[in-house]
Amino acid sequence: MRIDKIQIRIWFSHLSVEIRHLLRLNIPSRPWHIALVASVCMAIPVFAGAYCGRMDYALLVCMGTLVIYICQKQHWCIVCRV
Fold first, then answer.
1. What confidence score (pLDDT) does residue 66 get?
2. Low-confidence ranges of the chain (pLDDT < 50)
């Protein structure tokens, strides 16, 4: 199978567009402290699990705390009673 120069140019043009989209910085719509609180909610159970030697429980609790934290920001959680 022979690849033409035109196909290579098309591929590189698509690649440059994708790289431009990946490297574009947008103005965030959320306050900065949301990311900080989410990282603390994820880190505390991991450190506690590492201290106790049960990383399996720590990762489970870590995912649970993030779901609860995100769920508090949504209106549908009141109906679900999570």
1. 67
2. 82
